[in-house]
Amino acid sequence: MKIYTRTGDDGTTGLYGKKRLAKHHIRIESYGTVDELNSWIGLLADESENISTSNFLRKIQVQLFNIGSHLASDEDSEYKLPDIQIGLIQELEDSIDKMNEELEPLKTFILPGGHVKISHCHIARTVCRRAERRIVHLAEQENVDNHIVKVLNRLSDYLFVLSRYIAFELKTKEIPWDPKL
User: Fold this and answer.
1) Is residue 72 over pLDDT 80?
2) Stretch 62-69: mean pLDDT, rounded?
3) What is the domain extent for residue 169?
4) What contacts 90, CB < 8 A, 6 or more positions away?
5) What is the pLDDT of residue 164?
6) CATH of the domain at 142
7) Which DSSP string corresponds to 98-141?
């Protein structure tokens, strides 16, 4: 199988099905941003020394790929798409709660940073928020499974708490936001 097809040389890309869209179409932006998020999650999994966290991040990657396949399919597609595991929402919430049990309560906004692993987690969080915004925009125009937005919303919360938990594991001080600096 060749990786290049030359069919996108005209500025369009094909969905699963027969439909072609401009590469700047909000649908392409949506699944492209999910793909970017998946890459950042992969980096976090690679960097994690916590096997449980790494394994959970890999599970998230699979679900992001499933989400991407739904976003990359036209409504007339005859392809059988993988299920979006809505149970992931509860798993993300459970993981957030478990990490929060070990963390000091948040008393102020914190700045991204303090360690490269923490910064990577914050980048993943902000890409997740961008993916969520793109998909909400798409959903205003076309039919989108409402579980996708819920998963991404909860995932961004998870990534925020994970960034704090990474700081805790690394014994790195969080950087409080001081608007007077």
Assistant:
1) yes
2) 97
3) 20-71+83-174
4) none
5) 98
6) 1.20.1200.10
7) HHHHHSPPP-S-EES-SSHHHHHHHHHHHHHHHHHHHHHHHHHH
Please say whether the beta carbons of 138 and 74 come within 8 A.
no
Tell me whether residue 100 is in a domain: yes
In a domain, 104, yes or no: yes
| DSSP state, residue 179 | T
* The total number of residues written for the chain in this structure: 181
C-alpha span between 52 and 16 (Å, rounded)? 34
Distance separating alpha carbons of residues 70 and 55, to the nearest angstrom: 23
Q: Is 49 inside a domain boundary?
A: yes
Total domains, the chain: 1
SS3 of residue 73 by DSSP: strand
Q: What is the pLDDT of residue 21?
A: 77
Q: Does 40 map to a domain?
A: yes
Identify the residue whose tokens are 């005859």: 78
- The three-state DSSP-derived secondary structure of 39-55 is HHHHHHHHHCCCHHHHH
